[in-house]
Amino acid sequence: VSSISYSLSQVVSTSIIAILGTSAISTKIYVSNIVFYVYVFGLSLGTSTSLFIGWLSGAGKYEQAYRLNLQNLKLTICMNVFLSFCIYLFSEPLLRLFTSDPVILQMGHTLMLLDIFVEIGRGFNHIEENSLRGSGDVVYPMVISIFSCWTMSILFSYLLGIRLGFGLAGCWIAFAMDELFRGTAYLIRWKSRKWMNKTVA
């Protein structure tokens, strides 16, 4: 359900960005293609963490599962910050692989700076959400994901990007708010250890 909700929210957010014009849509596509490589790293580590958490939780090794989560979280956050910062430093040559439009180059450079915060939030999400699901705690992350996608991401994309006139940068700020909100909520849940009661041995 949460994956369907996320996919639908992406369609709606793209529709909001379309209001800003073709340059905004093009910039979103180019930047998303570039930062996808940071996304893949966190997703891969999050998926593998989920498998280990599931195995450790099923075996009743909760303390090992708890420590593994925090260890991989630190690794993912550090790598996401490092990789996204490198992308920001080389944003112009990377964007020039796709276009030479000065408007897109300027917007893309700004977005890649803001994307550092998006990737920090994604790092939390990839590890914490997958860990909760791996341990058997699936309802909580589903509810948080649906709520955050449609309030933080969609609502604030419209408010910041369209109503307040921040444009594509406003939409990216909303994306960062969504990722950071979900990541924080998942981390609080993990540290509360309530997921231990959801484990299926």
Shape: globular
What is the distance, rounded to the nearest whole angstrom, between the alpha carbons of the first and last residues? 24 Å
* Beta-strand content estimate: under 5%
- Count of helix runs: 7
- As residue ranges, the low-confidence spans are none
Helix percent reads: over 70%
Helix and strand composition category:
mainly alpha
Instruction: Give, in order, the helices and strands.
Output: HHHHHHH
Average pLDDT: 93
Fill in the keyword field for this structure.
mainly alpha, 201 residues, single chain
Descriptive report:
It is a single chain. This protein is an all-alpha fold. It contains 7 helices and no strands.
Write a short abstract of this structure.
With 201 residues, the protein is an all-alpha fold. The chain has helices at 2-18, 22-58, 62-89, 91-95, 102-135, 139-163, 167-192. It has 7 helices and no strands.
Topology (SSEs and partners):
Blueprint: H1 2-18, H2 22-58, H3 62-89, H4 91-95, H5 102-135, H6 139-163, H7 167-192
Helix pairs in contact: 1-6, 2-3, 2-5, 3-5, 5-7, 6-7
